[in-house]
Specification:
This protein has 2 helices and 6 strands; from the N terminus they run βαβββαββ. By secondary structure, it is α+β, with helices and mostly antiparallel strands.
Amino acid sequence: MSYRCDHIHLRSKDAVAAAAFYVETLGAREIRRDGSSVASRVTIDLGGLILFIEQAPEGLGASPEPPRLGIEHIGLAVEDIEATMNRLLQTQHAGATLLRTHPGIRAGLA
């Protein structure tokens, strides 16, 4: 039996806004929205990686400071890391901030 990645499932206090960040900032493509008038889950395609972004239940608290249990990060490859980082650093989308950088590797907008 062989396995392949089908999707990564994320939870957000605002699933629609989180999906918009991936679409507008990282060029993802929205595939569908599930749920009633307020989306309970938005499915996006991020360079071939399917992300389910689920609306978190009311009152669900954020995880404590890193390191956290669960998904630590999503790694993306780009052609030009310096140009990409410069563009992301200029992005003011939903309060996105740079988390950390490493020589030759840049990590994380949150």
